Amino acid sequence: MAFQYVLMTSNRASSLDSWNADWAGLRVVVLGLGVTGFSVADTLVELGCRVMVAASSIDETRDQILQVLGVETEIADLDLAVPERVKEFDPELVVISPGFAPHHPAAQWASASGAQVWGDIELAWRLRDKFGKPAEWICVTGTNGKTTTVQLTAAMLSESGLRVAACGNVGVPVLDAIRDPIEFEVLVVELSSFQLHYLGDISPWASACLNVYDDHLDWHSGPEDYRKSKGKVYSNTQIACVYNIDDPTTRELVEEADVVEGCRAIGFGLGIPGPSDFGIVDEVACDRAFLEDRANQALELFEIETLKERGLGSSPLIADSLAAAALARSFGTDIPSIRRAISGFSPAPHRVQVVAESGGVTWIDDSKATNPHAASASLSTFKSVVWILGGLFKGASPDELVAEVAPRLRGAVVIGAERALAVEALKRHAPGVPIIEVKVAETGEVMNLAVAAASRMAQKGDVVLLAPAAASMDQFVDYKDRGKQFASAVNQLVGGVEDDSNPTAAAT
User: Fold this and answer.
1) Mean pLDDT of the chain
2) Given this model, what pLDDT does residue 216 score?
3) Gyration radius from the chain CA atoms
4) CB burial string 254-281: b at 16+ within 10 A, e below
5) Of 304, 308, 273, nearest to 287 (Cα)?
6) Are residues 329 and 367 in the same domain?
7) How far apart are CA 446 and CA 389, in angstroms?
8) How many angstroms separate the CA atoms of 300 and 150, rounded?
9) Nearest Cα residue to 51 out of 75, 20, 65, 72
10) What CATH number does the domain containing 396 carry?
11) Count of domains in the chain?
């Protein structure tokens, strides 16, 4: 009889696939209490579940809210072991925050517990019918460019008159979007490789993988696991799988994907487009996918000059714009709506953003460049650079990047916990480039010292570029905090932008 009870409870969660299903009393453990974990706990309480949150820390505001909601909490060092109290809770479902790698003790406990194990994306997919007809999902992943593509796609869809939300890894949890009384018609969902690992079964309207370069190898078991996680974005796609013509891996992932019958592969690239592709002809972005005579004709979407005017003129950002247009066109967005969206778009902060110009030196914040490939995009834009780099390289190597950009470097200022990786790469591949290593660990001092060091190296005509090629959590809250501290240090040293009429011009 006991065996039958365990079998019944372990199967209960797997059958819950609607907001209107019977979630009442379901025992759920939520692992992690960041933005995602909090949205999960809040949602589950609304459904009537019995919820326990296990996390390594909790801020006072969230703690107070969870107490009011009746959520049990267990705060302990989960890196060591899952507390007995959590095990005794005997969950039927564990919802795991994306920060927990598969080899983490908490993730391994969840897998062995007999409970269903979901990420927040699978939970949101099951609950997406709260207000009746569910919104369609357009899913976007890639090593770089996700946020810009998601925001552009959402802007294009919005201009066409749809109620649309950009959500997921872009900042707004998907669970918050599906519970919003606005009742969105389309969700454009940014998905990290972590979220994709725990994805579960979803079926998006359209999906895109923008590019795949080694990243987060400390989280994944290796490059192939990272690649497979990215490829999950295409699974069960209904209408269009959008891939990067200039990145063969993305095409391979489409070819390997199990999609809905009739789903099309749509390529995007910086060259002349073939049939079913998006590309560029005579400095005009063109659609040869969503028109009747795509074998012989193309539709003009927007001029590349317009992208340059909006700070979207670098090659990676042009590619992101093409991908966004392909996704929006898959949903029927007309060309005037796409043009209006681009004309009114501004890239988010910390993406090749001019901070100051003084004495012939331009100071640029590209703190969002959290891996070598992202840093390459901005470094390749400028001829003479004093480069501020370093942080947590997440298992990736900076060697190839340093070798590529060495001729452009006036000097390098190295910060972060894994400074040695950057310093050694610079010595191997850019032996004539001066290096200043900022060895202090205190967050409040690092950027002031780095900016001061860079100013001593910079000459008239140079760009001082914060493009760390690494994650920020060793010395900063996140890449935004790192960028803000850079801007603050620069402005203290040299003052603001002398001509700020176009603050994103450096991206052209």
Assistant:
1) 90
2) 63
3) 24
4) beebebeeebbbbbbbbeebeebbbbbe
5) 273
6) no
7) 12
8) 22
9) 72
10) 3.90.190.20
11) 3
Residues 470 and 399 in one domain: yes
Place of tokens 């005794």: 88
Per residue in 445-460, pLDDT tens?
899 999 999 999 999 9
The DSSP call for residue 507 is G
pLDDT in tens, 129-172: 999 999 999 999 998 889 999 999 999 999 999 999 999 987 79
Render pLDDT for 88-129 as a digit per residue (tens, 0 to 9).
999 999 999 988 999 899 999 999 999 999 999 999 999 999
For residue 412 the two structure tokens come to 């390098």
Secondary structure class of 56 (helix, strand, coil): coil
The whole-angstrom distance between residue 93's C-alpha and the CA centroid of its chain comes to 26
CA 183 – CA 195 distance, rounded (Å) = 24
Q: Is the pLDDT of residue 367 over 80?
A: yes
User: Among 343, 362, 395, which residue terminates a domain?
Assistant: 343
Q: Which residue has the tokens 């959520």?
A: 71
Residue 114 identity (one-letter amino acid): G
Report pLDDT for 347.
77
Tell me the Ramachandran region of residue 393: left when phi exceeds 0, alpha when psi lies from -120 to 50, beta otherwise.
Answer: alpha
pLDDT at 43: 97
